[in-house]
Amino acid sequence: MLIKHWCYYESCILGAQRGLVSTYALETLVLYIFHVFHKSLDGPLAVLYRFLDYYSKFDWDNKGISLFGPISLSSLPELVTEPPYTRDDGFLSREAFLKDCAKAFSVPPINSEENPQVFSKKFVNIVDPLKQSNNLGRSISKGNLGRIRKEFYFGACKLGKILQAPACFSANEINRFFRNTLSRADVPVSSPDDVLQAASVSASPGNKGVEGVSKGSSPNNSCDVLCNQFGYIKISDSNNALQNLVVDRPA
User: Fold this and answer.
1) How many angstroms separate the CA atoms of 167 and 2, rounded?
2) 201, HSE (Cβ side, Cα atoms, 13 Å)
3) Per its UniProt record, what InterPro entries does this chain match (predicted)?
4) What total of structural domains would you count in the chain?
5) Contact, 128 vs 137, CB < 8 A?
6) By residue range, what is the domain housing residue 112?
7) Distance in Å from the first CA to the final CA of the chain
8) pLDDT tens per residue, the chain (251 residues)?
9) What pairing do the DSSP bridges indicate for beta strands 127-128 and 69-72?
10) What is the spatial distance between Cα 234 and Cα 215, in angstroms, rounded to a whole number?
11) For the whole model, what pTM was predicted?
């Protein structure tokens, strides 16, 4: 729900009828993040950051995405999956489980032998887990792909910067990051503590925190709690993306 709200209210990239991302496509993209990065996800903000960071760097021009890994567009119409790099020992068992689920819930097409359907290449290519010939990214136009890439990139940069800031500043920045969502009348936020609790992520003792973030064992206030919890979200520093951030979107 956090990712859906960000996509709809903050970045305005959700809506197949407007040439943007469909809800089903978004759910598939999120499910892939859980599938591959399961061990490193400790809460909603960790999932959102990983989602933005991963898809902002994804090679949409040459690859598509499926639940089982990226697909090479050069191999179409055959769907050749590139297994994602992961050190998660449970990945293969989850992959087998997903394949069993897809097989159980998929509905075979009528007259499949007489009229075989193939995956149609579009500007964004997302394989439907329940019908592999269905491209869930077909609604996204070429122009909107560029817009979506920018939203993912600037979203990842902003959130990454927030998660590395002192916790009390982070609380205010989180409010700004979700300002359109929080301004809606149907979003109940009764106090700053509620915002901190909603934005927080569960701390996992086995994970390493962001350098410079305090990890006191007995936090004294909401800001300390948020600081400790943010410390367990790993921030990507590839290509020095967070070294010199330009926070505001270009006009």
Assistant:
1) 20
2) 27
3) PAP-OAS1-bd-rel, PAP/OAS1-rel
4) 1
5) no
6) 2-143
7) 28
8) 899 999 999 999 999 999 999 999 999 999 999 888 888 888 899 999 999 999 999 999 999 999 888 999 999 888 888 877 655 555 555 667 667 777 776 766 665 555 668 899 999 999 998 888 999 999 999 999 999 999 999 999 999 999 888 876 778 888 899 999 988 866 555 444 444 454 444 333 444 333 333 333 333 444 444 444 444 455 554 444 444 333 334 33
9) unpaired
10) 14
11) 0.71
Tokens in use for 120?
Answer: 């149609």
The answer to the question of residue 241 being in a domain is no
What Rg, from alpha-carbon coordinates, does the chain have? Answer: 20
Residues 6 or more apart whose CB falls under 8 angstroms from that of 103 comprise none
**Residue 59 placed within a domain:** yes
* 57, part of any domain: yes
Beta-carbon neighbour count of residue 249 at 10 Å?
12
- Contact between 20 and 140 (Cβ < 8 Å): yes
